[in-house]
Batch of 2 targets.
Target 1
Amino acid sequence: MGGLLKRKTTSSSSPPFLAFFFLIFLERSVSVALELDHSKYSQVSSLRLERIQRHLDKINKPAVMTIQSPDGDIIDCIHKRKQPALDHPLLKSHKIQKVPPEMPKVKTVKAEEVKRDYYNATSSNNEERAVIGSRSAWQIWHQNKTRCPMGTVPIRRSTVHDVLRAKSLYHFGKKQSRTGLARQTDAPDVVSGNGHEHAIAYTGTSQEVYGARATINVWDPSIQVANEFSLSQVWILSGSFDGSDLNSIEAGWQVSPELYGDSRPRLFTYWTSDSYQATGCYNLLCSGFVQTNSKIAIGAAISPVSLVSGNQFDITILIWKDPKLGNWWMGFGDNTLVGYWPSELFTHLAGHATMVEWGGEVVNSRTNGAHTSTQMGSGHFAEDGFGKASYFRNLELVDSDNSLTTVQDISTLAENTNCYNIKSSYNNEWGTHFYFGGPGNNPRCP
C-alpha cells in the first residue's frame, strides 16, 4: 500500500539474540532480492556496485520525509538547499531564486481563455472543444494524499537497478549524442542515423525566442524493447546543430523502461549545453535544474492517460526566460512553477533561443533487422484525428517583450512517414496545432 514510510525502532525489551537473528535474516533477504533482480544482467562486480552506490549517494540526498507511491516509486522530500542542483560547479555560489519570475503576458487571446487546469478532459466533437475538468490525481504518487512539507522538494529516488539498466554508469540518465543529418539550413536538429526518429513541428532560425508553451495529450505507447523510448516534448534550442555547442532545454512526457523500469508515461525534463555530450541529464539525475515546487515530482508517473475513442487527458508545458534574472523557468498546468534552469548552465541560451520544436521522438533499434514496433504518441497516424491520434495544441511562443503569441508559421518534419507522421492545422479553439504519431513497424514500414 502507498503511504508514508516510517522508520521503525527496535523495542528495548526485545532479547538481543532475536535482534541479531533478525539482522542476519534481513541481510540474507536483501542479498536474495538483489540476486533475483540482477538475474537478467551479466554478473555485477562488487567494484562496479561500489561505484554505482557512490554515485547514488551523491544524487539521492538525505530525506526529511519519504513517501511510497502506489506504483512502486519512492519519493524523497529533500530540503530545497540540499537538492542535487547546487552541487554543480557553476552553481556553488548560486542562491535559489526567491522572487517569483515575471510570467509571460498573453497578447492574442483573453487571459481567461488560456487558463488551464492540471488536466483538461477533452470531449470528442467536431469542434475539438476542450472541456476543462479538475483532476486531482495528476501524478500517481499523490493518490495516497501525502505531500512533501513546505521548504522541501519531491525527488524520485534512484536505485542500483535503475543504473544497471543503463549501458553504463556514465550513460545513466543521459540521451545519446545527436549526429548530423542532411537537411535544409533552417531544419531542426533531428537525426535518424543513431536510431532516433521524429515527427515534429518547428519554428525558423531567424528569430529571437524567449520561450514556448503547448498542451499535449498523454498516452501510454507500447515499447518493443527495454532500451527504446517514446516521448512527446518541447525543445528550446540555440547553438550549432552540426557542432558540439548546441544548447537544449526540454520537457514533456516519456515512456522509457530503461530509465524508469516500467512502461508508465512520466513527466520529464532534460538539458544540455554541449550537444548531449558531457553536460546535462534527465530530470534531477545530475546537478543543474533547480526545483522550487513541493508538489510535482519530475520523473514521476502521470495519471490518468488518454483512451482511444475515450476521454483525452493533457498537460500544459511552459518554458520561458525570466526577463528579471535570466533563468529559464518551467511551468506545468495552470501556471504552476516547477523550477528553473539557471542561466549559468548555458552558453547560447544565456541570451535567447533561436528555435523551438514540438513533437514526438522514438528510438528505433531495429531488433532482428526490422523497424521497431514502438509506438509514437497513441500509436495512431495523424490522419486518424481527434480521439485516436496524439496532439499538440495551442502552440505559443514567448517574444522579447515577455509576451505569449500564437505561433503563426510552423514547418513539420518526419523522417519516415510510413512509420510515424504529422499533420498541422489551425482553428479558433486550438490555435495552431497538429496531430502526430504512428505504430512503427507495419506493412509499409518493414
Target 2
Amino acid sequence: MPLKAVCIELRPNLCSGHVFLQFEHDLCDRSKTRVVIKEHDVHIVEDGADSADSSSGELVIRHASFGMDIQQISVFIASGPHISFRFNYTQIDLDAVHKAANMLGEPKSRPLLLSFGEREDVVSLHCSNCLYELVPSCSYKRLREFPSGLIDPSEFFCHNHGTTSKQQPTLVPSSFDLYYGLNHIVLNITVLQSRVINSSGHLYCKRCMQMLGLTILEDAAAKLWADALRWLPSKSSPEMHPSLPRQLFQHSTVTQLMLQLLSNLWTQSMPQLCPSTSRALLIATMPNRQQQYMLIHVLERQLAVLRRLPKDTTDEAQELHYFRACKLYFRVFDNSLDELEQQMDLPRLQISPCLFRELQARLNRNSELIPRAWRYNSVEEKLLLTYFFYENEQQELQQQEHRTQLMVKVKQTTPKKQLQQKKSELEQNRNQKQEQEEYETDAGLDASLDEDEEDETDSDDEHSDTDSETRSSLLHKSASIREYEQNLVKRWLTQRQSSPDSNS
C-alpha cells in the first residue's frame, strides 16, 4: 500500500513529533498494517511481512538523517486511509533537519513593492485573461501605498490644521497617480471608464467579461485586483520586450500573499490561547456579485514540519523536506445572517476572488492529511483543521507546473470521453429510430390487413371467426398482401380509364 502523503509536526521544545500518514486506499483493504520502529527508524510494514526485513516495508522516518532516537509511539489512530501517532525523542540534529529543506532560504514576508518605477517606466495595464488594454500607456507620477481595510481611511493622512485650507484630504487618486495595497491597486475611475463594464459597482473587462474589481470612494475610484491585471512596457522602451506581460508586484506568489495577509491582520505576535484575537474574516465578491466569507482561526503561524513533496517533482519521493507552515482552522460560508452576526467583532479583510479560491483549494487539499476524527474543532462551529505550507518561488513554480500537467492530462482525456459518449448517444438514437420505423411499418401492415379482412368478411359469410383465428399469422399476412397489391393495380387501371384526360 503506497503512501500518498506524509506530514510530521516537529516540536523541538517538547522533544516530540506528530506523524500524519495518508494512504491511497483504506487500511481495511489490507490484511495487516503495522508501524515498526527498528534502530530508531520508523517503517510501515503490511500484509504480514517480516518486521526484521526493512526492505519489505516503506520508510517513514530515518533517524540517521535527523539524529532522533525514537523509542515508542503513542496516541495511535488508524481510520480509513489515515494513520496518526505521536513519538518522543531525547535528541535531534536540527542542522540536519534544516539541510533536509533543500531550500534557497525560508520564505519570509517581503515588502509590498510594484514591479515598475515612479516617473521612470511608461506602462499600460491589460486584462490578465485576454490582454485587452484597460489603461493606456502613461508614466505614473505618484505610486503610494493605500490603507488596508482594517483602519479608517480618514486616519491614513494627516488632518488639516487651521483655516487656511478648506480642501479636505481625499484618497481618490488623480489621473496620473496609482495607489496600491495587498493584491490590489486603486485608480481614478475616469482613466478606464470607457474600457470596462460597470454593473452596480462591479467592474468587468469589456472584451472577455472577467471580473476586475470594484468601485470605491462613492464610485470615484476603482479598486482592481492585481491577479486580474498585467502590465506591458511602452513600445518606445528598448530595454524591455513589449510582448511579455508582467505581474504588477515583485513578489506575487500565494505564499507571499498569505504572509502579507497574516501580517496585515496581526501586526504583532498574537496570543495563542485567546480565540478572539486569533480569528479573522476574509471576504471575496465573486463574479456573480455574491459575497463569500472565510472564517480563519490561526493556531500557529510558524510551525516546523517535515513532509514529502509530490512524486512527479524532480526531488526523490522518499526524502522528507523541512517546511514552515501555518496551522489553522477555517470554514467557508455564504451570506448567512445568523453566522455573520456571530462574527461581527472580528477583523475583516477583502481579498480577490482568485486568491479566495486558491486559498480554499489549498486548505481543503491539506486538510485531507488529518484523520476525520481530528478535523473539526466542535459540532457547533465545524471549523476544519488544516495547514498552509510556506513555499519559496521555486517550489511555487514546481507546484504550478505539476498542476498544469495534471490539467493537460485531464483536457486530453476529456475529449476522448466526450467522443465516446457522443458515439454511444448516436448509436442509441439510431437504434431508437430503427425500432420506431419497424414499429410504424408493422402498424401499417396490420392496418391494411385489417381492411382486407373486413372486405372478406362482408363478401363471404362462409368463413367463421374460429377459422381465421387458427390460421398462421405469417401465411395470413403474405396472402393478404398479395391480394391487396392486386386490388391496387385494378383500382389504378379503372381510375385511369375513367379519367377525362385519358378519354381525350
